[in-house]
Amino acid sequence: MVVGGFFGDEGKGRVVAYLALRRNIRLAIRCGAINAGHTVVYGGRTWRLRSVPSAFVNPSVELGIAAGGLVKVDVLYKEIEETGCAGRLCVDERAGVIEEEHALRERSSDYLAKTVGSTLQGVGEAMVDRVRRVLRLARDVPELKSYLCDLSGIANEYLDEGHEVLIEGTQGTFLSLYHGTYPYVTSRDTTASAFLSEVGVGPKRVGDVIVVFKSYVTRVGAGPLRGEMSFEEAARLGWAEYGTVTGRPRRVAPFDFELARRAVVLNSATAAAITKVDALFPEVRGLRDPSKLPRRVKDWVEQVESVLKVPVLMLGTGEEVEDAVYLGEEE
Ligand code: IMP
Questions:
Q1: How far apart are the CA of 13 and the centre of ligand 1, in A?
Q2: CA 49 and chain centroid, separation
Q3: What spacing in Å lies between the alpha carbon of 236 and ligand 1's midpoint?
Q4: What CA–CA distances, in Å, run from 167 to 140, 155, 178?
Q5: pTM of the entire predicted model
Q6: What is the dihedral of CA 243, 248, 249, 255, to 10 degrees?
Q7: Ligand 1: distance of its center to the CA of 311 in Å?
Q8: E strand or H helix at 274, and its extent?
Q9: Of the residues 220, 242, 245, which should be mutated to test ligand 1's pocket, given the most ligand atoms within 8 Å of the CB?
Q10: CATH code for the structural domain at 2-326
């Protein structure tokens, strides 16, 4: 499982894509919904995915969308076309469907727009309808017919057969409806346990939980952000970013060790991945060889490991999926 450790936008997409290329994964499953954008830069191309799993970069990986996830038909179709994954993607027949009406309802809410800072993609309103038991599911939508499957059944079967299944979580631990900075949170739990439930796989089946952090913290929308700096200061440090889905400038703060440790605990993480290490240490930009890691970067990684109490599995050193230093054991 791969989950976000801060407020989303940690770079889960690139971590998932990297693992999909490196490990022998049979099936990768995307959870969550279209408010979460995962960016993948591979072979000189950039994809901003809101539905299709980032593991698509490896053509031998089968792809799925979880029962607890929500799709929007137009967004899904566009991404299937962009990624060319039609022949190997399926949508759990129990996944929820977001309609235009849900986004309209969110856009008419001053509270969501101004107080929470929602992405206004209709995700929360679709969740409301699901709880009210009036939401259409994937199985009710004729356009999705050729993609439907019993994904939890397939995932459990593959696990029984000894295959690796990768679950791609969305957003970040502190945007969780339960464990985040309520009410400045998203409309679902975003910790590892929740994503297992979204897929329909039990906790005893989990091998690794990799929690992804960025070398600094960003957050879009409202809510507390310890150590927040001005956007000008962030730009000076090379940490200025804009939201994948909304295009809004992200709020920025330095790496927060205490928050990161809490994320490790909430997700019972077995390892961490840290992205954008080149933003903190420009000398590692594009580095892939672990033996060339400078001393001061090693020291920082050791400091992170001692606070987090889990090993750091990989470091992102550039935009390209393969710009990464792998610190785990060779398979
Ligand atoms: P909503 O889930 O679109 O209603 O947004 C609720 C809060 O979660 C807002 O602060 C959003 O900016 C934030 N949020 C939702 N999805 C993501 C994401 O994928 N990355 C970062 N922030 C997100």
A1: 16
A2: 10
A3: 25
A4: 25, 10, 20
A5: 0.97
A6: -40
A7: 28
A8: strand 271-275
A9: 220
A10: 3.40.440.10
Query: Measuring from atom 5 of ligand 1, which residue has the nearest CA?
Result: 118
Whether 9 is catalytic: yes
Which residues, in sequence order, are CB contacts of 268 under 8 Å at separation 6+? 192, 209
* Ligand 1 neighbours (beta carbon < 6 A): 7-9, 35-37, 116-119, 121, 123-124, 170-171, 175, 184, 186-187, 220-221
pLDDT in tens, the chain (331 residues): 999 999 999 999 999 999 999 999 999 999 999 999 899 999 999 999 999 999 999 999 999 999 999 999 999 999 999 999 999 999 999 999 999 999 999 999 999 999 999 999 999 999 999 999 999 999 999 999 999 999 999 999 999 999 999 999 999 999 999 999 999 999 999 999 999 999 999 999 999 999 999 999 999 989 999 999 999 999 999 999 988 778 889 999 999 999 999 999 999 999 999 999 999 999 999 999 999 999 999 999 999 999 999 999 999 999 999 999 999 987 6
> Is residue 38 annotated as part of the catalytic site, yes or no?
yes
